[in-house]
Specification:
With 356 residues, this protein is α/β, with parallel strands linked by helices. It has nine helices and 14 strands. The chain has two domains: 15-252, Type I PLP-dependent aspartate aminotransferase-like (Major domain) (Aspartate Aminotransferase, domain 2); 256-355, Aspartate Aminotransferase, domain 1. Strand 3 (92-97), helix 4 (100-112) and strand 4 (114-120) form a beta-alpha-beta unit. The structure holds pyridoxal-5'-phosphate.
Length: 356
């Protein structure tokens, strides 16, 4: 039975990736050993790490001035590591508050040093992306969140600023063509669009490091991890391998140019239906709508149990909205086929016929 998996995270992965990952758990690289029971310093795993880093660089269009890491701790640890590594003890960091994740990043940065909130859309429950706000020239960096997983907004244009821009791309990494060289640092938890929970990808322009004036704890110091090739300690080997398989899948199928087109088709398909259907409405400003997390609510919330019955019957999974927004959230991550979106749209139309 095929399940249409709209989970917000951990999210859907390509079937072939799941197949290859499960095979590696039994017999990795024809070693007759599991990936889970060999040294991370073996030649076989070093190849995995090197290829994952290279493919990440290639797909994000990064050059040799960037270093890629795969570390544990989730994107949430990066909320602390970013200011710890980039915010000078006398400096100031600027943050754009576009949702719960951005707010958590701000909270951690404030614990590390001077932090200024440059703009916020909290006044309207984060239903839009703030634009055109003033940016002080003397910031050590500016932090943005490219896609707001919970509220369903996404940055379509990148801010232009004289200081390095740091971007949390956890929920739309590699979903569209992005010239990563526009950023000083990009980070993403792997479990939404890149692989399995447990690994976090960080790409940083190396020249930005080592300037804070802080005595650094080793495990929180990017330079230690870069020097050790992400093997300062034992890295999360299995989720890194799943990321590699997902990166290979993306490249083989045509890379970010290909997936961007597919993702645009999926998003157009469901947003057209949300706008057409008399029983539903979107929750965000149209120009800021995410192509990854599609949030929508019902005009008559008392009908929700009826709709829930219908989509469950259609083998749809994971579309209940986040508790902060309510209603529904359909996550359209890279591995979700257009066909699944069509099934959801069909259910919305059948629901309208019955209850409008
Ligand atoms: C899910 C998510 C996070 C948190 O990721 P963890 O890996 O669970 O720490 C951070 N930022 C964004 C945008 C997310 O979607």
């Amino acid at each position: 039975m095929k399940v249409h998996n709209f989970s917000a995270g951990p999210g859907i992965l390509p079937q072939e990736v799941l197949q290859q990952a499960s095979e590696a758990c039994i017999n990795f690289d024809n070693l007759n050993l599991s990936l889970l029971e060999i040294s991370h310093r073996s030649k076989n795993f070093e190849k995995v790490m090197d290829e994952a880093m290279e493919l990440t660089k290639e797909l994000l269009m990064l050059d040799a001035s960037y270093k890629v890491m795969f570390l544990g701790g989730g994107a949430s640890l990066q909320f602390a590591m970013v200011p710890y590594n980039l915010l000078r003890t006398e400096g100031t960091a600027g943050y754009v508050n576009t949702g719960v994740w951005a707010a958590k990043a701000i909270k951690e940065a404030k614990n590390v040093g001077n932090t200024k909130v440059l703009a916020s859309s909290e006044d309207s429950n984060f239903s839009y992306i703030p634009k055109g706000f003033p940016v002080p020239k003397d910031l050590d960096y500016m932090h943005i969140t490219s896609n707001n997983t919970i509220y369903g907004t996404q940055m379509k244009k990148w801010p232009v600023a004289p200081m390095p821009i740091v971007c949390d791309m956890s929920s739309d990494i590699l979903s569209r063509k992005v010239d990563g060289k526009q950023f000083g640092l990009i980070y993403a938890g792997a479990q939404k669009n890149m692989g399995a929970a447990g690994a976090t990808m960080i790409a940083v322009k190396e020249e930005l490091l080592g300037k804070t004036g802080r005595t650094m704890l080793s495990m929180l110091d990017y330079r230690q991890h870069i020097k050790a090739g992400s093997m300062y300690n034992t890295p999360p080997v299995f989720p890194i391998y799943v990321s590699l398989l997902t990166l290979r899948w993306l490249k083989k199928n045509g890379g970010v140019e290909w997936i961007e087109k597919v993702n645009q088709q999926k998003a157009a398909c469901i947003y057209t239906e949300i706008d057409r259907n008399s029983l539903f409405k979107g929750t965000c400003e149209k120009e800021d709508r995410s192509s990854m997390n599609v949030c929508f609510v019902m005009h008559k919330p008392e009908l929700e149990p009826e709709f829930d019955k219908l989509w469950k019957e259609a083998n749809i999974s994971g579309i209940r909205g986040h508790r902060d927004v309510g209603g529904y959230r359909a996550s359209l991550y890279n591995a979700l086929p257009l066909e699944s979106v069509q099934v959801l749209v069909d259910v919305m139309q059948a629901f309208e016929k019955k209850f409008a």
